[in-house]
Specification:
The chain contains seven helices and no strands. By secondary structure, it is mostly helical.
């Protein structure tokens, strides 16, 4: 009888240890999502800021400046539920303005244009990487949260279900060439 109780206690301890380890893993994934989201937000803000700075610098022609400024301003001011759309519209505006290599060449020829082009190219290059890191962390957390043990024992607690950040982050041809 005592031997059976010992085995039951050992089994319960092992199950509790496994569930605790799984809850800790899920907590670490949620922390990774938070860190990746903060990095993504920083890169999106940097891209919008650089685009807005370039639009107001007088380097671009007036029509391109207006298009780029409005898209960058909308991306910086967007509410969380509209952020993906606003960031996609900024990507489209960047492709419209810098879709032709001649426009990029004109920017480079202006004093200070080489630095501005380099900064914009770096910002545009980092956004897809930050988004990929975030979405990979979300994918891993979602996969773990789908397991029965996580649902049955409510190991996720009250944490909201993680959502991926979906946006158009295709860089303009002229900036993609420069980013490499």
């Amino acid at each position: 009888m005592t031997e059976t109780l010992i085995w039951i206690a050992v089994a319960l301890f092992a199950i509790g240890l496994y569930l605790s380890w799984t809850a800790g893993r899920l907590d670490r994934l949620h922390a990774r999502i938070d860190a990746a989201r903060a990095a993504l937000d920083a890169q999106l803000l940097r891209r919008a800021s650089v685009a807005q700075e370039l639009a107001t610098s007088g380097i671009l022609d007036p029509a391109a400046s207006i298009v780029l400024y409005q898209a960058a301003h909308a991306a910086r001011q967007a509410e969380e539920e509209h952020r993906e759309v606003a960031e996609s519209e900024l990507s489209q505006a960047l492709r419209a303005v810098f879709g032709e290599p001649e426009q990029m060449q004109a920017v480079r020829e202006v004093p200070g244009g080489e630095e501005a082009a380099g900064e914009l190219a770096a910002a545009v290059r980092r956004v897809p990487m930050a988004r990929r890191f975030h979405n990979d962390a979300v994918r891993a957390a979602r996969a773990l949260r789908r397991h029965r043990k996580v649902r049955w024992f409510r190991l996720a607690g009250h944490a909201p279900f993680p959502m991926a950040f979906e946006m158009d982050d295709e860089p303009p041809v002229a900036l993609a060439d420069r980013a490499t």
